[in-house]
Structure formats: C-alpha cells, structure tokens
Amino acid sequence: MYQSPRRLCSALLLRDAPGLRISSLAPGPRRPLAPPVLRPRPASPRLQAAASGAGRSRPGTVSSMGNGTSRLYSALTKTLNSSAAAQHPEYLVSADAEHLEPIDPKELLEECRAVLHTRPPRYQRDFVDLRRDCRSSHPPIRVMQWNILAQALGEGKDNFVQCPVEALKWEERKCLILEEILAYQPDILCLQEVDHYFDTFQPLLSRLGYQGTFFPKPWSPCLDVEHNNGPDGCALFFLQSRFKLISSTNIRLTAMNLKTNQVAIAQTLECRESGRQFCVAVTHLKARTGWERFRSAQGCDLLQNLQDITQEAKIPLIVCGDFNAEPTEEVYKHFASSSLNLNSAYKLLSPDGQSEPPYTTWKIRTSGECRHTLDYIWYSRHALSVTSALDLLTEEQIGPNRLPSFHYPSDHLSLVCDFSFNEGPDELL
Ligand SMILES: NC(=O)C1=CN([C@@H]2O[C@H](COP(=O)(O)OP(=O)(O)OC[C@H]3O[C@@H](n4cnc5c(N)ncnc54)[C@H](OP(=O)(O)O)[C@@H]3O)[C@@H](O)[C@H]2O)C=CC1
Ligand SMILES: [Mg+2]
C-alpha cells in the first residue's frame, strides 16, 4: 500500500479480507512499525488470541499470566451484563481494580475482533507526521479525545435516522470502541458521554494499566431514557506506568454564576521518565444552537479553573473536549486567545496550520445532516509540540448514512495526537 512520506504506518488494521484476519496493534511513530500480518482466520478466535505472538505490548502495559483466554473471555462477557451499575447508582464509587488481574491488550483486541467478525471492515486512519524539529529525548505522550456516544442517548434520544438500531447494540458497539482505543494505545484517554464507566471501561482499562476518573453530569439526559445504565459524564484515564497522579479536580462548570449541568476533570500528572509535570483536562460543553453564550460562559469558567490549577500557566496544559462549538463561536475564540497560550492541535493538519478540520462529527438527524467541527485538543504552545496527529476519516469512508454506523461506533470521530515537551528556550511561557 502506498503511503506518502508524511504518513506513518497504518494505525487501525481493519480491512479484514474474507477468511483472513489482520492482526497487529498500532504502534505510534516512536515505536518500530510492524506491517499488518495476514493469516487464516482460526477456528477459534479466542484460542488464536491466546496463542498469537503477533503485535506487541507497549512498554508499561501488563502481560497476561496463566490462561489468558478464559480470563479475558470472562472479563469481556462480564461487561455484557451491565444492569448492575444501573441498579446500584453509587456512581462515584469505584470498583476495586487492585484485585482484578491484568489483561494483555493483544488478547483483548483479538477478543473484540471475534465479537465483531460479522461487522464490515473498519477503515484505516493514518498518523500524519508533524515533527519539525523534535529535540525531545523522551517518548511522546499520546492523547486521545473522544465523545464515544452514550449508549442511552444513541438508542433513546439522538435520533440518528439513518443508523440501524442493530448497529447500536452495546455488546458489539462496546467492542468497536475498545478496538479503537486498543489500536491507538493512548497514554491518556479523554472521553465524553461515558455511561458505561463502572461496568465496562473502568474494569477493563484498569486491567490494561490505566487509572481512571469519572465525573457524571448532575442531571444526565441518559436518566430520562428507559433502561438507562446511569448518568453519562466525562472520564479521564492515564497509563500508570507512564504517569504519577499529582492532583485531581472535578469541576462542575458555572455560567453566569449559576451551576450548570456540564462538567470537567482536570488532573496534574508527572511523567515517570522525565519528571516533567503537566495538566490534562477533559470537558463536554452544553449542546445545541441557541446556547452559544452559555457555552462561552462555561468556557470562561473552565479557563479560570485551569489558570488556577496550572498556577497561571506555569504548568503545561492539554485540554480535550467536545466543546459543541464551531471555531466561529465565542468559546473557541476565548480558548484561542487565552493567556494560557493555547493552540488547537488539529489545526496542524491543515496546509497552513491555521484551519480546523472540516468536521469532527457527522450524523443525520430528523432535522437533516449535521456536519460540524466541535471536538478539540488544546495544548500549551510554548511548552509542548505536536509530533503527529491521526488523520480523520474521509467523507467516502464515513459513507452516505454518516455516523454512527456498523463500522464506526460514535457520531464523533476520535482525535489522537502525540505530544513532546519542548526543550530549550521555546518551553518558556
Ligand atoms: N430532571 C431535571 O430536573 C433535569 C433534567 N435535565 C435533563 O438534562 C437534559 C439536558 O441536559 P444537558 O446536559 O443540558 O444537555 P445538552 O443540551 O448538553 O445535550 C445532551 C446530549 O444531547 C445530545 N444532543 C445534542 N443535540 C441534540 C439533538 N438535536 N437531539 C438529540 N440529542 C442531542 C448531545 O450530544 P453531542 O454533545 O454529541 O452533540 C449531548 O450529549 C434535559 O433534556 C433533561 O433530560 C436537565 C436539567 C434538570
Ligand atoms: Mg452526543
């Protein structure tokens, strides 16, 4: 397959030919690139998963011990029964991850692919190399931003009129989401619309070596949906092998001095390799047209909180979010011109580095087609550099029925960037 010099290796190896499985994890640019391995579809994908030596664990991810296949099978099937969290709405009480056995990411990926074997091939997205002069001696920090679509909203409220209900079945959609996370292997994962934290993402991701935090919306619209799985909210995960948690703040955003239904999580982390500290935040601002001033006020409140947490920008910052705002909106302009000195990472994919992508979400509702740029990864431009970013899906790949679909689990695309700390005079704010 041809790849332009700026393209790095294929990230999600998902064009399964009939009778063949493609198996490999997606290394980022800092990792040696292994081409996809095509091999015959095994009689038992789960046995194959246990036996497979293809792919690589990332440094810091844990390897399985003993009978990985059966443990993994039980891990995944356990998450299929998700009513427990809805029956026990102690949303802020975390499961005791210490007692859960580690999972090998390769095995979980194979397990997901086995569940998804009837789905159409997923599309490949490539990392675009943005390194100008990368002087960092430490491995980059990979950050994923993703509104994964709350299950209750997708099935009960969103009205994706061109998306068949079967495409939204949680048992399979969950595996599509996990497959995407496992393919890109982020060091930091910032999610919105998470309504399966305690029964799915927290237990599975903690077994992959992540530490997670969840902050639900106070009045989640999910709770209005029959058979909901609890409130949706923001979740922030980081790899414990790479970072140490220094501080964590759950923020209920205010607008015009009133508490709102929108939230954020901000954490200060320390890199274990370099000892450098930085702050990462995740948020999901108020949706819908007519709420532009409200979003703007929420953005100002978040910026104020981040000023305090970063000690007036002394600590480098990464902010991920579904801002529900096009770049023309006031809240975007507040972020672009803040004294925190932020840049939006995905602008760097444009030829002049000045334009946001044409869309990060694309869906068809009863009101018609909704194609918008709403999701962003902001970063401290003087302290950090974006060394690569995952390209978006093309219109053709997204398809005429748009998102979500049988081959993509959310109406929002994931954004993934690799960051390095600037070394030298640039890092001074
Ligand atoms: N019980 C109570 O007293 C209260 C209950 N509520 C509940 O909360 C809800 C509002 O919550 P709030 O957080 O302000 O919600 P938002 O307006 O922020 O939207 C909530 C979700 O709806 C999605 N959405 C956006 N546009 C549409 C659309 N056109 N059709 C369907 N879904 C859409 C958004 O997805 P995306 O971001 O991907 O666009 C978002 O995740 C109320 O509808 C009510 O159900 C709220 C306050 C009090
Ligand atoms: Mg939504």
TrEMBL record:
Residues 44-58 have a biased composition (Low complexity). Its EC number is 3.1.3.108. It is an enzyme of class 3 (hydrolase). Its main location: cytoplasm. CDD domains: Deadenylase_nocturnin. Keywords: Biological rhythms, Cytoplasm, Hydrolase, Magnesium, Metal-binding. It holds the Pfam family Exo_endo_phos. It is found in: Cytoplasm. Residues 144-412 form the Endonuclease/exonuclease/phosphatase domain. GO terms for cellular component: cytoplasm. Its cofactor is Mg(2+). Residues 21-68 are annotated as: Disordered. GO terms for molecular function: metal ion binding; poly(A)-specific ribonuclease activity. It catalyses: NADP(+) + H2O = phosphate + NAD(+); NADPH + H2O = phosphate + NADH. Residues 29-43 have a biased composition (Pro residues). SUPFAM superfamilies: DNase I-like. One of its GO terms (biological process) is nucleobase-containing compound metabolic process. Interacts with PPARG. Phosphatase which catalyzes the conversion of NADP(+) to NAD(+) and of NADPH to NADH. Shows a small preference for NADPH over NADP(+). Represses translation and promotes degradation of target mRNA molecules. Plays an important role in post-transcriptional regulation of metabolic genes under circadian control. Exerts a rhythmic post-transcriptional control of genes necessary for metabolic functions including nutrient absorption, glucose/insulin sensitivity, lipid metabolism, adipogenesis, inflammation and osteogenesis. Belongs to the CCR4/nocturin family. This is Nocturnin. It comes from Mesocricetus auratus.
